[in-house]
Write a structure and sequence with these properties.
Distance between the termini: 49 Å
Shape: rod-shaped
Number of strands: 11
Number of helices: 0
Largest sheet: 5 strands, mixed
Radius of gyration: 27 Å
Strand content: 25-35%
């Protein structure tokens, strides 16, 4: 017995049968197995640490997909979108799956071009398992740069006649 208590069909959930008067059909067997649950968030990872921290902005309406096969080898493909809290959830039969999100989704702000977490996660989902925290972070890449130059007059501006400096190593410290 698992934790979540959701049951999903393992053999299909309907059978078409035509019966006449006083006829019986005893071949309509249906199997069920306890499902597992996968959940997480898509979010703006403002500090680029790969963790959905308190105060970080969730990204709603982003498409997330679960694909793979159940324990019997049957293909499973589920798609959902994140809610207002950036959260998604799948209920699926036990099996081996890959969770991905659409990195080109129009609901991800255009400036958030850098993934701060893997963009796909593979996992084995067991019956009754509740696998949470499969979060996907995005951030905007930072950059530091400009020109190193001889500031002959010390005014902090590169004036005409103040040449750039080539082959200088620049180190950035936190």
């Amino acid at each position: 017995a698992g934790q979540i208590g959701y049951m999903v069909a393992s053999t299909g959930s309907s059978a078409g049968v035509s019966l006449g008067g006083n006829q019986a059909y005893t071949q309509a067997d249906f199997g069920f197995i306890e499902a597992g649950e996968v959940s997480g968030h898509v979010f703006h990872d403002a500090n680029s640490n790969g963790v959905f921290d308190a105060g970080e902005t969730p990204l709603p309406n982003v498409t997330v997909t679960l694909t793979g096969a159940d324990l019997n080898g049957n293909p499973v493909s589920l798609t959902t979108t994140t809610d207002a809290a950036g959260e998604y959830e799948f209920v699926a039969p036990p099996g081996n799956y890959t969770i991905t999100y659409n990195t080109g989704d129009p609901d991800i702000p255009p400036a958030l071009t850098q993934a701060t977490t893997p963009v796909t996660v593979s996992l084995t989902l067991n019956a009754g398992a509740e696998v949470g925290g499969i979060d996907f972070g995005r951030d905007h890449p930072g950059s530091v740069g400009d020109t190193l130059f001889v500031d002959a007059n010390g005014n902090g501006l590169q004036d005409s006649g103040e040449p750039g400096l080539a082959n200088v190593t620049v180190s950035l410290y936190d």
